[in-house]
Design brief:
It is found in: Nucleus. The chain is mainly alpha-helical. The protein is built from five helices and no strands. 46% of the residues lie in helices and 0% in strands.
Length: 151
């Protein structure tokens, strides 16, 4: 007989979830509103930017309270990963040297770029300065204005 599948969100959250629940709930509501708005928008790239940025914000919040401030338990962190509240791949990159400020994982995937390189937002701003004028750089994938750790 096949197993009965339960809802992903039906699991009881670990101890300490009630402390971060208001912030997570507020950010998830903001994400849902951005998703609804992006469906109505015509421009494909620009409509996804708010979704990616809010996803980054949620992941950065959990990363900070787990790795930097050590305010939540490992069980709660793994629960948030399992429930897909946060982007585990992005958090894994933030732990590596040189990727501390990474905006999204798509910016470092070289297969999707025209010249087989990383995104323009990953280039340090010092190398983009021409004739003492800073060129405005904006990633077409997520709208980032520069996430290189060398800045």
């Amino acid at each position: 007989m096949p197993r009965i599948r339960s809802s992903k969100r039906s699991q009881i959250p670990p101890e300490g979830y009630d402390k971060i629940e208001p912030t997570i709930t507020k950010l998830l509501a903001k994400l849902k509103a951005a998703q609804t708005k992006s469906m109505k928008s015509e421009d494909k790239h620009n409509s996804l930017w708010p979704i990616i940025q809010i996803n980054h914000q949620i992941s950065r919040y959990v990363y900070t309270i787990y790795y930097k401030k050590k305010l939540i338990s490992k069980e709660l962190y793994e629960y948030l990963l399992k429930q897909k509240y946060v982007d585990g791949d992005l958090i894994a990159k933030w732990k590596k040297t040189g990727y501390e400020n990474l905006c999204c994982v798509q910016c470092i995937v070289t297969k999707e770029k025209n010249h087989g390189n990383t995104c323009i937002c990953r280039v340090p701003k010092a190398t983009l300065i021409k004739n003492n004028q800073e060129e405005k750089v904006e990633c077409i994938t997520c709208g980032c204005k520069g996430c290189s750790s060398a800045d």
